[in-house]
Protein: Dirigent protein
Amino acid sequence: MTTTFFFLLITILLHSSCHTLTVADDFVRPVDRSLLGLNKEEKVSHFKFYWHDTLSGRNPSSVPVIPPTNKVNTTTLFGLVNMLDNPLTLGPTLSSKLIGRAQGFYASTGQTEVDLLMAMNFVFVDEKYNGSSITILGRNPIFNKTRELAVIGGSGVFRFARGYAQLKTYSVDLKTLDAIVEYNVFVIHY
Ligand SMILES: *[C@@H]1O[C@H](CO)[C@@H](O)[C@H](O)[C@H]1NC(C)=O
Ligand SMILES: *[C@@H]1O[C@H](CO)[C@@H](O)[C@H](O)[C@H]1NC(C)=O
Ligand SMILES: *[C@@H]1O[C@H](CO)[C@@H](O)[C@H](O)[C@H]1NC(C)=O
Structure:
């Protein structure tokens, strides 16, 4: 009688502890680094290209979707949000070789100077980078000579990527606000 009881008790305990283990196992488990290609040495790559923010014309690549707020009195377009799908080219002219696209938005977040919050995915179309993307996030005080944004991750060949982008305005049309910006991106990736 007692033996049967203990046998039952142990079975129940074992069963429930097995059950918890299985649930935990399904949720998270360690993975061998080599299965994810993390046993390779990291590379550092320098990408240089031009970002074309075209607001004018019949086919703008960058479009205001939220106007600046009128609740505060500033000259910085505070509150503006622009959605963009901008071409990235090898040279500074729009007709130069397309190497990818910048998809995302910028938002005016400064009340005393023009500072943009930039949130973009750069998706490349060139050969081994085709379809791979890096994600860019950062602060862009557009009137400064050089600005720096963070590379916070990526996909495809850029899995586990990190780094930064340096921005320099190449040209800006003060009437249309169309701008061409040189990007130098330094990325650590596998
Ligand atoms: C905004 O600021 C300007 C310049 O300081 C001032 O002339 C104007 O009255 C202000 N407008 C409002 C709505 O506060
Ligand atoms: C990039 O990939 C797309 C489909 O994913 C394909 O249509 C295109 O030809 C590729 N481009 C290059 C340059 O390999
Ligand atoms: C931007 O430029 C101003 C003045 O030229 C300088 O004081 C400031 O430190 C710069 N900011 C950044 C983030 O580079």
